[in-house]
TrEMBL record:
This is Hydrogenase maturation factor HypA. InterPro entries: Hydgase_Ni_incorp_HypA/HybF_CS, HypA/HybF. The keyword Ubl conjugation does not apply. Gene3D superfamilies: 3.30.2320.80. The gene is hypA. GO terms for biological process: protein maturation. Belongs to the HypA/HybF family. Involved in the maturation of [NiFe] hydrogenases. Required for nickel insertion into the metal center of the hydrogenase. Keywords: Metal-binding, Nickel, Zinc. HAMAP family: HypA_HybF (MF_00213). Ni(2+) binds at residue 2. It comes from Enterobacter sp. (strain 638). It comes from the Bacteria.
C-alpha cells in the first residue's frame, strides 16, 4: 500500500507550509489524485487520518479530487477521456496509440489554516 508513503510525504509538505505561515493548526487539505496514480481514495483517506495524528493537521477536513483519465489520440487528433485508467483504447476509433495527458501523481492543491 503506497498510500501511506504518499500521505507521509504530503504531511511533511503540509507541516512545512503551515509552520511557514505561523499556523496553529491545519483545518482543511485539498488533494488532487492523478487518474493514473493507482491510488485508492478510501485507503488514502484512512492513511491520511492515521499520519495526521498528533500533528498540526490532526482532525482536518480532507477533500479529494480525482482527475479524469485524459489522453491524446494520435489517430483522431483529439483529446479523449477514458472511462477507466486500465483501458488504453481510444473510445472514438479504438486506436491503441494514446498519449497520456492526465497526471499520475498526487498534488496538494490548497491548505486551510488557523492562525489563532
Amino acid at each position: 500500500m503506497h498510500e501511506i508513503t504518499l500521505c507521509q510525504r504530503a504531511l511533511e509538505l503540509i507541516e512545512q507550509q503551515a509552520k511557514a505561515h505561523n499556523a496553529k493548526r491545519v483545518t482543511g487539505v485539498w488533494l488532487k489524485v492523478g487518474a493514473f496514480s493507482c491510488v485508492e481514495t478510501s485507503a488514502l483517506t484512512f492513511c491520511f487520518e492515521l499520519v495526521c495524528r498528533d500533528t498540526l493537521a490532526e482532525g482536518c477536513q480532507l477533500y479529494i479530487e480525482e482527475q479524469q483519465a485524459e489522453c491524446w489520440c494520435e489517430h483522431c487528433q483529439q483529446y479523449v477521456t477514458l472511462l477507466s485508467s486500465k483501458v488504453r483504447l481510444c473510445p472514438q476509433c479504438q486506436n491503441v496509440g494514446l498519449r497520456i495527458v492526465a497526471d499520475d501523481g498526487l498534488q496538494i492543491q490548497r491548505l486551510e489554516i488557523d492562525q489563532e
